[in-house]
User: What shape does this take?
Amino acid sequence: MAKLPPGNTLQPTALVHDAYLRLVGNQDPGWDGRGHFFASAAEAMRQILVEQARRKAAIKHGGGQKRLDVDRIEIGVDERIGEILAIDQAIDRLREVDERKADIVLHRYFAGLSREETAAVIGVSVRTIDREWRSIVARLHRDLHGDLPLAKERDDADS
Assistant: This one.
């Protein structure tokens, strides 16, 4: 959430509160350990952020409109909404191919866990997280921004 632009109406405390209510509600969910809890928490936070992004993007709620930042008297556009929705779709596509990699993204991006914490929660080594993270970043970048030119092609284009 630290990367969201000014004017975001969902505060971190509210996000955690809503995620907790989705996770627990009126019942004991019976966690199967720390990994199960963090996976569920990350998924709940992802759903809340995606729902908020969809709600803000809706025409009915002023989607695409410029927002006035009263503190700075500047007009800013909430550009992160489309990015959150695109990331959500990319994670869904990744989950179809490799569920563990999708879980790594949820833990790192949405739950904000470190490499070490993610490794402990998922039950793999930090080295495995690092190796898979490089693969994940490349795939998500390709999904979100299209194919990257090969290094030789980039060098030729710069000449």
User: Anything to note?
Assistant: The first helix runs from residue 12 to 23. Confidence is low (pLDDT under 50) at residues 73-77, 150-159.
